Structures are given as C-alpha cells and as structure tokens.
Amino acid sequence: MKYIIDSANLQEIRDALELGACGVTANPSMYLKEGQKLLPFLRACSTMGPSFLSGEVMGTTPEEMEEEVRQIQEVSPDIIIKLNFSPHALRLCKKLHNRGIRTAVTLIFTTAQAVAAISAGADYLFPFLGRSDEYGLDGLQLLDNIQRIISRNGYPVSVVAASVKNIHQLEAAAVSGASYAAIPYSLYLKSLE
Questions:
Q1: pLDDT, position 29
Q2: Which of 18, 100, 7, 92 is nearest to 57 (CA)?
C-alpha cells in the first residue's frame, strides 16, 4: 500500500512527498480551509511530480461537472478526475472511461456502491472507513469486501482507503491489500513514530 497525502496545504504536501508519499488528493472543504482555488492548487501540485494527483469535480449538474472536467484536463491530462458517488457521477464516470480519462469515485459507503462504480469504469475507489464507522457501519469490513470482489473477479480498479482516522485503520487497510491510503498529514507523521 502506498500513501496519498490528503491535504490542500502545499507545505504539508511537499514534506509528505519528500518523505515518500506518492500522491495528493484533497476535497472542497480542504481547499476552503487553506484558501486554495482548485485549478491553481492542481497546477502547483502537478509541478511537485506526484504519481497520483486527483482533482475533485464539485458541480451539481451534469453540465457543470463536464465543464470542470474540461478545465482540470487543461491543467494536465494526467490528473485523475475524482467524482462524488451519485447517479450523475456514474454517468460521467462511464463517459470519461470511454474517452480514456482516469477517474476515482469517492464517498463509497457500501459494497453495492463500489460495484456500481466498478461497473461504470472507475479506475479508483475511495471507500470511507472512518466515516462509515461514525454511521454505525464497519469501515474495515467494507474495505475487505471490496478487496475480495476485485480480487475474485480480476477487476482493473485500485482501492484507496479513505477517511482513515487512526493507525489501527491504516495498518488494517495495508493488510487488506488496499493499493493506497489517503491520509491526513498529521496521521502520516504519527505513523512514522
């Protein structure tokens, strides 16, 4: 399992990449907290050379979403388009897959949602471990179930364990076979102690 820094703080990102993290992901609340705008943030991160960089589409209509994809692709065609799970997102995921654009579907809370995203052609799945636990679900069991489905069927999709809240979840995600863990900078540092 490889680490993706889950942050919009450019100094944290630089440090994490120097420590060996392979990628960067962030969400709208992080952009807001750090005073970042999406496209300049993606430009800055792409110059740091991560092997994984996602840009989250925030539009609510299909037209807004497609326009954001176009803008992100103008920054770099290598940026992975991150979509919040919804019927609109699945339709867009399928379109982008057919055009050869890599996608990540985030906000996965159930096995059925993961299967829908796989069926739509997602390249990456972001199951939410900690937030699943907060809702009375078992985030680690969700991760194991998704990993089993992918492994048994040989689906060409990678799992990014997301909403990782502690070292226990981080280590369990590694053991489960997740390809990546999207973790906050503070947890990354704690994992090094």
A1: 87
A2: 92
Query: Helix (H, G, I), strand (E, B), or coil: what is residue 146?
Result: helix
Identify which of 161, 150, 172, 186 has the alpha carbon closest to the alpha carbon of residue 2: 161
The answer on pLDDT for 132 being more than 70 is: no
pLDDT in tens, 173-187: 999 999 999 999 999
Alpha helices by DSSP H, listed for the chain, are: 10-19, 28-34, 38-46, 62-75, 87-98, 111-119, 129-134, 139-153, 167-176, 185-191
Cα–Cα distance, 77 to 53 (Å, whole number): 11
End-to-end CA distance of the chain: 18
Contact (Cβ atoms closer than 8 angstroms) between residue 4 and residue 24: yes
Q: Give the SS3 label for residue 111.
A: helix
Torsion, Cα of 131, 22, 168, 6 (10° steps): -30
CB 55 within 8 Å of CB 38: yes
Catalytic residues: 82
Q: CA–CA separation, 172 vs 26, rounded Å?
A: 22
pLDDT band for 134, please (50, 70, 90 cuts).
low
For residue 110, the SS3 value is coil
**Contact (Cβ atoms closer than 8 angstroms) between residue 146 and residue 125:** yes
Residue predicted with more confidence, 105 or 137:
105
What tens digit of pLDDT does each residue of 72-95 get? 999 999 999 999 999 999 999 999
